[in-house]
Automatic annotation (TrEMBL):
The keyword Glycosyltransferase applies. Belongs to the UDP-glycosyltransferase family. Keywords: Glycosyltransferase, Transferase. Gene3D superfamilies: Glycogen Phosphorylase B (3.40.50.2000). This is Glycosyltransferase. It holds the Pfam family UDPGT. InterPro entries: UDP_glucos_trans. GO terms for molecular function: quercetin 3-O-glucosyltransferase activity; quercetin 7-O-glucosyltransferase activity.
Length: 450
């Protein structure tokens, strides 16, 4: 009789933030559907709890991980540096415990690139490890270029407009000015993190939540540059639904959307980290009201700096906001974007939001805040031509104009047509025989090989 093959276990190590946890859980779900056992190793906050959505998943805690107050105190980059130092020994203990408990070995540790301290445990216990990049391939390529440059010298030279505007070789339309990690504090911690990531790296493959039809040039560049297999298997939210919202989603907005005309609503969300200043909120509210379009606005876990923002509006504005708008703390975003009433998405251009909007063929108003969001916005506007950027200071007239361009004007209709075509390509890539579908199959073969 043929011996039943033992299932292999994969340990997933996400960064504790919504935009990272979600794609990790989707990857876990996709791999579990392919027959792997999944363990999710998490810190003390932004944790996913066991639920029927994740049958058979094991959740373990890395005991000495940093608390959330440290993230608030240090900001994301300094936090990541400190988190990795604190985590290293604790993660090793965690893996040692797992190896003792499990009847089966750990086939692979898949970790977020910013959780590079995982490599120490992988090395010690001789477990293969793979990096999962939850951002775009282009962003990953730009980080690689940054690591290769003598970055400190480069950044003192970059004030020269000729250098700034030079295209990075083989990565058009990426220019040198795009490599600067803007809006996320001083440069040195970024460079220190890049050094740590690159010097410690032993990972034998990369997984990227993107599709070949979106970023073929950056993917070819990465394949050549990294010299290890790269698996572009996204958008994962289409392949494997994995409800992993860290905040409760307010579904009442779906009932409100049901009452709106097709493609009339502008949906506004800045994701889980970006913050809008009070002045920007007020100008946005005026602009939305003046546009005469209905709007659904997510105020987020802290995306608006003033918590009682609506109370601060003048009486007239409060009235139009409540007549035309619907406001929630957190929405079921994928469902909202799929709703026929939604005509446009005003977004901070986080990578997950970008993929979710593309997958529903919804054109975008881009208002990036920092880091990779700026690259995503550039791609949305200039490469895929499915959105417009709102640059400079936000004023009510520019908001009104942008909403009308997207929802009412012919220009918006053309963008919507292109967005639909892009949606079709992206969906085809995850279907049987498509590039992302094949990449997932190849990854599975790779993980199954001893
Ligand atoms: N999201 C959500 N409800 C909201 C706003 C956002 O469920 O009201 C989800 C969204 O679907 C996406 C994630 O939060 O999967 C945000 O990730 P993204 O990479 O876009 O931005 P980040 O929060 O990392 O800046």
């Amino acid at each position: 009789m043929e011996k039943k093959q033992e299932k292999k276990r994969i340990v997933l190590v996400p960064v504790p933030a919504q935009g990272h946890v979600t794609p990790f859980m989707q990857l876990g779900k996709a791999l579990s559907l392919k027959g792997f056992l999944i363990t999710v190793a998490q810190g003390q906050f932004n944790r996913i709890s066991p639920s029927p959505d994740f049958p058979g998943f094991q959740f373990v805690t890395i005991p000495e991980s940093l608390p959330e107050s440290e993230l608030k105190r240090l900001g994301p980059i300094e936090f990541a540096l400190k988190h990795n130092k604190t985590n290293e020994a604790s993660f090793k203990d965690c893996i040692a415990q797992l190896l003792l408990q499990q009847g089966n070995d750990i086939a692979c540790i898949i970790y977020d690139e910013s959780m590079y301290s995982c490599e120490a445990a992988a090395r010690e216990f001789k477990i293969p490890c793979v990096i999962f990049t939850t951002t775009s391939a282009t962003n990953h390529a730009s980080r690689c270029v940054l690591s290769k440059l003598n970055a400190e010298r480069f950044f003192s030279d970059i004030e020269d407009p000729e250098v700034q505007d030079k295209v990075v070789e083989n990565l058009y339309p990426l220019r040198y000015k795009h490599l600067r990690p803007s809006g996320l504090g001083p440069l040195e911690p970024h460079l220190e993190m890049r050094r740590e990531i690159v010097n410690k790296r032993t990972a034998s493959a990369f997984i990227i939540n993107t599709s070949n039809c979106l970023e073929s040039l950056s993917l070819s560049w990465l394949q050549q540059e990294l010299k290890i297999p790269v698996y572009p298997l996204g958008p994962l939210h289409i392949t494997a639904s994995a409800p992993s919202s860290l905040l409760k989603q307010d579904r009442s907005c779906i009932e409100w959307l049901n009452k709106q005309k097709p493609r009339s609503v502008i949906y506004i969300s800045m994701g889980s980290m970006a913050h809008m200043e009070t002045k920007e909120v007020v100008e946005t509210a005026w602009g939305l009201s003046d546009s005469n379009q209905p709007f659904l606005w997510v105020t987020g876990s802290g995306s608006i700096t003033c918590p009682d923002w609506i109370e601060t509006f003048p009486e007239e504005l409060r009235k139009t906001v409540s007549e035309r708008g619907y406001i929630v703390k957190w929405a079921p975003q994928i469902e909202v974007l799929a709703h026929p009433a939604v005509g446009g998405f005003w977004s901070h251009c986080g990578w997950n939001s970008t993929l979710e909007s593309i997958a529903e063929g919804v054109p975008m108003i881009c208002r990036p805040f920092h880091g990779e969001q700026l690259l995503n916005a550039m791609y949305i506007e200039s490469v895929w031509s499915v959105g417009i950027q709102l640059e400079g200071e936000v004023e009510r007239v520019t908001v009104e104009r942008a909403v009308k361009r997207l929802i009412v004007d012919e220009e918006g209709a053309c963008m919507r047509d292109r967005a639909r075509l892009l949606k079709d390509k992206v969906k085809a890539s995850v279907r049987n025989g498509g590039s992302s579908y094949n990449a997932l199959d190849e990854l599975v073969k790779y993980l199954e090989t001893d």
